[in-house]
């Protein structure tokens, strides 16, 4: 049976009722179809695209055009899941106008339901401008990979009082500015739990413990379709790299040994026609 389209009020209702929200990244049509079939509530086309699909060393080089291209493919594979598009580095920081235009492109050209951007209280005015333009926003605080250089690496954030308070204040400012969702990446579980209780917006954790309103993982980490070490915060449910490697190895061996293609993979032709060919 077809599920109904997941909406922002549905996500608030799930928070209210304590029903956990499942979020998964996807970057292409088959990934979206798989996420949809699994019953995922929210699909995020993250700029982790850079790491897991494009073979880059981070998210900073990812462009708007690349995000739009992948978002369109994912949109075609979804029926009911809510779709969030990640605004890439420098697509929203330079000016409010640019932030609105790029967010608008994600809705207009790629069919997103919401955009996501990184940053705390300093991004509140930008969030307000995007929301005022009628575009829903998901914030992202804690380990924000677009600022990895400033953060000094991929490290847990908010472990001491000052940095934890900054995250609390940031979350409140972003909510005040109109964000409906917020991602907590790599922050202590107790801090994520405290903020989740203190805010009305829907909190989604990755490396933020079990008490957020929902959880997000990267598609390739879940399926083991990656050459990178599974991060501590992720759980690998399958080793698709090994399984796919073995299947592809078998294909190469069969081509070399003449085992593929078999007669069943070919198309018949009247031998009389073959006989008349001028060769
Ligand atoms: O880019 C991404 O995939 C993300 C998630 C890890 C939250 O931002």
Describe the structure.
- This protein has helices at residues 8-17, 29-38, 49-52, 64-77, 96-108, 124-132, 148-151, 161-176, 189-198, 219-223, 240-257, 271-275, and strands at 21-25, 42-45, 82-86, 114-118, 137-142, 181-185, 202-206, 214-217.
- With 279 residues, the chain is an alpha/beta fold.
- Helix 2 (29-38) links the parallel strand 1 (21-25) and strand 2 (42-45).
- The protein is elongated.
- The longest helix has 18 residues, at 240-257.
- Helix 5 (96-108) crosses helix 6.
- 3-methyl-2-oxobutanoic acid binds next to strand 6.
In short:
With 279 residues, the protein is of the alpha/beta class. It has helices spanning 8-17, 29-38, 49-52, 64-77, 96-108, 124-132, 148-151, 161-176, 189-198, 219-223, 240-257, 271-275; strands at residues 21-25, 42-45, 82-86, 114-118, 137-142, 181-185, 202-206, 214-217. Strand 3, helix 5 and strand 4 (114-118) form a beta-alpha-beta unit.
**pLDDT averaged residue by residue:** 97
In CATH, the topology is named: TIM Barrel
Alpha-beta content class: alpha/beta
Bound molecules: 3-methyl-2-oxobutanoic acid
**Count of discrete domains:** 1
Task: Supply the key terms.
alpha/beta; TIM Barrel; eight-stranded parallel beta barrel; 8 strands; binds 3-methyl-2-oxobutanoic acid
Topology record:
Layout: H1 8-17, E1 21-25, H2 29-38, E2 42-45, H3 49-52, H4 64-77, E3 82-86, H5 96-108, E4 114-118, H6 124-132, E5 137-142, H7 148-151, H8 161-176, E6 181-185, H9 189-198, E7 202-206, E8 214-217, H10 219-223, H11 240-257, H12 271-275
Parallel strand pairs: 1-2, 1-8, 2-3, 3-4, 4-5, 5-6, 6-7, 7-8
């Amino acid at each position: 049976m077809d599920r109904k389209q997941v909406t922002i009020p549905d996500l608030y209702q799930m928070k209210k009722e304590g029903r956990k929200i499942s979020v998964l990244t996807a970057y292409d049509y088959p990934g979206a179809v798989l996420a949809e079939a699994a019953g995922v509530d929210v699909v995020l086309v993250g700029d982790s695209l850079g790491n897991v699909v494009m073979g880059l060393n981070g998210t900073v080089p990812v462009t708007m055009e690349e995000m739009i291209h992948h978002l369109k493919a994912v949109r075609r594979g979804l029926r009911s899941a809510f779709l969030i598009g990640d605004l890439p580095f420098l697509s929203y920081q330079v000016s409010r106008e640019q932030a609105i235009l790029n967010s608008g492109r994600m809705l207009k050209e790629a069919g997103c339901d919401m955009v996501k951007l990184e940053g705390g209280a300093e991004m509140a005015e930008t969030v307000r401008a995007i929301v005022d333009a009628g575009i829903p926003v998901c914030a992202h605080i804690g380990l924000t990979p677009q600022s990895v250089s400033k953060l000094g690496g991929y490290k847990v954030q908010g472990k001491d009082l000052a940095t934890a308070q900054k995250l609390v204040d940031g979350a409140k400012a972003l909510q005040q500015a109109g964000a409906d969702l917020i991602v907590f990446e790599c922050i202590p579980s107790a801090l994520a739990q405290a903020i989740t209780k203190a805010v009305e917006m829907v909190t989604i954790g990755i490396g933020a413990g079990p008490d957020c309103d929902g959880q997000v993982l990267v598609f390739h980490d879940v399926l083991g379709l990656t050459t990178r070490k599974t991060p501590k915060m992720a759980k690998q449910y399958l080793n698709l790299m090994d399984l796919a490697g073995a299947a592809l190895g078998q294909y190469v061996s069969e081509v070399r040994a003449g085992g593929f293609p078999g007669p069943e993979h070919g198309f018949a032709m009247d031998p009389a026609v073959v006989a008349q060919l001028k060769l």
